[in-house]
Amino acid sequence: MAVERFPVEGGHIMMFARAVGDPHPAFHGALTGTPAIAPPTFVWAADHYDPDSAVRPKPGEPWMGSGATPSGVPAGEGQGLGLHAEQRYEYHRPVREGDVLSAVDRPGRTWRKEGRRGGALTFTERITEYRDQHGEPVVTATMVMVTTSTAVAGG
Questions:
Q1: For position 78, what pLDDT does the model report?
Q2: Which uninterrupted H or E stretch holds 63?
Q3: Do 90 and 137 form a contact (C-beta atoms < 8 A)?
Q4: Which segments of 18-93 are extended strands (E)?
Q5: 85 and which of 66, 113, 127, 146 could share a cystine (Cβ 3.0–4.6 Å)?
Q6: Where are the beta strands (DSSP E) in 8-119?
Q7: Tell me: the pLDDT tens digits for 32-83?
Q8: What is the model's pLDDT at position 77?
């Protein structure tokens, strides 16, 4: 992910909090007139500002979707071999209404482990650093993906 400009707006924070079912008043500044802070996983919303994001639907293009089955992408070889295994966040300070964040990815560690059903498991970290409009760090997010060397048989 490379996001040059992710404006953090009160209404966006409130809608995100509603979508994840969190009624905490600190996330509802748009209703109370006080500046809001963002829920812990709010930085995922930066995908809306990344034109190349794989999880952002693009008009006229097939999309993998977020349901149990793909929504337009034909099933193909290699699908189903990867899994989002872990997500960690390090907060340098809260994300606040009025921030303008940028995000840059960098690779993290990679390691292997022998699995029981899918052959070798390869774990790969992707680290995303979110900085504010002054270049100061706000959140460091680490995603761990795992891929299997062979498809796991059902059962």
A1: 44
A2: none
A3: no
A4: 82-91
A5: 146
A6: 82-91, 100-114
A7: 888 999 999 999 899 888 888 877 778 887 777 656 565 665 555 445 567 8
A8: 45
What amino acid is encoded at 94 in this protein? P
* Whether 147 contacts 111, CB under 8 Å: no
pLDDT for res 146? 92
Amino acid at 107: P
Nearest to 73 by CA among 81, 83, 65: 65
Buried b (16+ CB within 10 A) or exposed e, 104-138: eeeeeeeeeeeeeebeebbbbbebbbbbbeeeeeb
Q: How far apart are CA 13 and CA 6, in angstroms?
A: 12
Residue 115 CA, distance from chain mean position: 26
C-alpha span between 125 and 50 (Å, rounded): 20
